Amino acid sequence: MFRSLRFRLPALFLVGAVLAGVVASLIALRLFQDYTRDQSVIELRREAEGLAQLYAESALRASDEGKAAPSFAAEKLELATGDRLFYVGTSIFPGQDSGLERLSEEAIGVSVLSGGKIVTFEFRPPGEERTFLAVAHPLRLAPGTPPFGALVVAKPKTELRDRWLTLFERLALASIGGILIAGLLALYLSRRITEPVLQLSRAADEIAAGRRDVTVPAVRGGGEIGHLSDRFREMAVQLAEAEELERNFLMTVSHELRTPLTAIRGHVAALRDGLVENPDDVAQALDVVSAETDRLERLVGDVLDLAKLDTHRFTVLTEEIDMGRLVERAYSTFTEEARRRGIDYRQETVATPVIVSDGDRVLQIITNLISNAFRWTPDDGRIEVALAAENGAIVVDVTDTGPGIADDEQERIFRPFWSNDGRGTGLGLPIARELAIALGGRIELETRVGAGSRFRLVLPAARNYAEVSARRSSSR
Questions:
Q1: Residue 199: inside a domain
Q2: Domain tally for the chain?
Q3: Per DSSP, what are the bridge partners of residue 135?
Q4: Which residues are registered as beta bridge partners of 396?
Q5: pLDDT digits over 86-138, tens only?
C-alpha cells in the first residue's frame, strides 16, 4: 500500500502543503512580531513624548509660581494606558514626589540622561519577573538645557506575546483547514491520475500474458497521461497487427515452401522409381524441378534480403547502369504472361540515362513493381512501364488498371508479410521500398479505388563514387 502511487501522490502533496504552511506561518509570525514591536515602540514614544512635554511645562510653571511639584497621577495614567510609568533622574522640587516610581540608570541598565535623546530598551524592574519594552524621554525645563531626568513608559512583553499567540492560533486553524482542503484535493487528483495509470497497467499485464484484444481506456482532458494512453493504444494495435502478420507469414511461407517441395518430391520420386523413361518426359520433369528450385531460392532470398535491410547490413554495389537496357530487361520478363492473359502491356522510354548504382538491386525493384502490377491487374487489363528523367532524378513508373488501394491500406502494403488477398509472401513491395531507400531513392504511390495504381521509383540522376562509398560504409 505504501509503495502505491495512489498513496504516495496524496502523501507527497500533503507533506508539501504542510511544509508550505509551516514556512508561511513562521514567516508571517516573524513579520507580525517585528510589526507589533515597531507599533508598540511608536505608541510608547508618542505617549512618553506627550507626558514629558506636559510634565516639563507643568514643572516650569510650578517652579515659577513657587507651587508644589506637579503630580502625574501615575495610577490613573497606568490604568488608562495599560503601561507602566517610571522616573529616572533628580527632582527639581526637593522633598517632593511626582507620584512616579523612581529608578536609577543602574537598575534599567541603560544611560538615558547623558545623551539627552529618546532611548528604546528592554529591562526588568526591581521586584518584577516580567521583561518590559520601554522608551525613556528626557525631561528639560527649557529647550537646549541639559535634561534633569527622564520619563520612562514601559509595556510588558507578555502583551506582545499574547498578540503573537493569538495570531499563531489563527494561523494554526487556517493551516489545518488548508491541509484538509489540500488532502481532499490530493485524493481527487490522485484518483484522476492513478486510475488511468492502473488501467494501463492492467492492460499491459494482459498484453504481457498474450492477449491482444485489450481495450485501452481513453483518458479525458489529454495531457501526458492521455498521450501515454493514445501511444499505448497504438502499440497494442501494432502488436496485434504484428501477431497477425506473423501468423500470415508462417502460413504463407509454409504454403510457398510446401508447394514447390511437393512438386520436386513428386518428380524426383518418379525419376528415381523409373516411372518416367521417355527422354522428353525426363527433361520436362527436370525442368519442373529446376523451376521449383529457383522459386524456393527466390523465396529464401527475399527473406534474407529483408533481414539484411532491417539490420542495416545490406551491401550496395557501385557500377554504371544503362537504365534503358535495364528497364527493357525487366519489361521483357513479363511479355509472355501479358500475351497469355490478354493484358495491354506497354513500355515508354522518354530518356535513356546512365547512372551509378547497384544494377541487380535496381532490376529487382522494377521487377517487383511489375510483378505486383500483374498480380492485381485483371485479364484484358493494361500495364504500362515508363522511363523518364526529370528534376535531376530518374523516374520509373509502373501503372496498372487494377482495383486500386484504399487509404487505410496504402501504408500496410509496404509492411513485410502483409497480403490483402492472402496469396504470396507480401515481401515484394517492402523489399522494393527498402532497396530504393538503400540506393538513395524512394517509391511513391498514386492510387484511386476502382481506377488502378501507379508506383513510381525515383533514383538520383547523378551520384558519384564517393557518395556511394559513404552510403556503403554506413549500411554495413
A1: no
A2: 3
A3: 120, 153
A4: 387, 457
A5: 888 876 565 556 667 888 888 888 887 777 788 899 888 888 888 888 999 88
